[in-house]
Amino acid sequence: MIESRPGAIRNGEGQMEPVIALTEVTAELGGRPVLRGIDLTVAPGEAVALLGANGSGKSTAVRTAIGQVPATGGERTLFGTPVRRFRDWRRVGYVPQRSTAAGGVPATVREVVSAGRLARRGLRPLGRADRAAVDRALGLVGMAERAGDSVNALSGGQHQRVLIARALATEPELLIMDEPLAGVDLASQRVLAGTLRALLREGTAVLLVLHELGPLEPLIDRAVVLAHGRVERTIDQPGRAAKGDAGAAAEGCPAGLPESHPCHPADESEPSAEAELQTGIL
Ligand SMILES: Nc1ncnc2c1ncn2[C@@H]1O[C@H](COP(=O)(O)OP(=O)(O)OP(=O)(O)O)[C@@H](O)[C@H]1O
């Protein structure tokens, strides 16, 4: 999957270029140090979870990675370009933590999701490809039936789905979601897992801030645990660690899989991604 992925970037030695690379990154908020030297990489097609206690710096790490929080030290790149020079934002989909879809402005679900195409089409009217991407994103999160409704009439979990759909409509190569499972029921979490599995198979890189892995556990290639603004530890393939190598091999992941070849086995305890996508219930 990774080797044949279109648009994959390689450095001079033919190595896969990470889509996110943070090296010894430090950051402050309100004059206080929040990130105290973070190293984090996410490769194309890889799913990385940021874990840690409240206030450990997960959201700040993500926001620093995409330039929303200035770094006070260290190196940050997106797709191999220093973040301060990066402009290709259509390659990045970001679902922030606990935000609302329209901030009280009257807008329909479709309008909010269509905003995800802005980075691609600028101010030009929606074309056929744009409309198809919006429809696909609405279907993936099970909100197609609500496309014409005002976002102000949605529940918290439905808001979350619309924000995810807006990010998916961008058709990003890197999808970042900050606590996508918060306030989302278990059935919807499983559908989100199916959606992510499909994106990972297509080569999308995924960075998630999570408090627990839940149904996403089999998809995660690496969990990075933060504590007090530092990386406390890194767990490769936490789903396999929980089950043991034999368990992973039984699911189709060769034991000792190198990080550059992440594996996203189908979890037979859950409906397949395709089945989930057909149900469209998130
Ligand atoms: N705007 C701000 N001004 C000052 N300090 C802030 C600001 N935002 C966050 N902080 C502080 O930065 C630290 C890290 O916050 P951050 O939101 O990154 O943590 P988190 O790991 O994502 O937490 P949670 O699990 O609660 O979402 C916390 O101590 C928080 O109080």
Automatic annotation (TrEMBL):
Q: Name one GO molecular function term.
A: ATP hydrolysis activity
Domain of life (superkingdom)? Bacteria
Give positions of region: Disordered: 236-282
Q: Which UniProt keywords apply?
A: ATP-binding, Nucleotide-binding, Transport
Per the database record, which ranges form the ABC transporter domain?
20-253
**Pfam families in the record:** ABC_tran
Biased-composition ranges for Low complexity?
A: 239-252
Q: Where are the transmembrane segments?
A: none
The record's annotation in InterPro entries points to: AAA+_ATPase (IPR003593), ABC_transporter-like_ATP-bd (IPR003439), Metal_Ion_Import_ABC (IPR050153), P-loop_NTPase (IPR027417)
The family this protein is said to belong to:
Belongs to the ABC transporter superfamily.
Q: What is this protein called?
A: ATP-binding cassette domain-containing protein
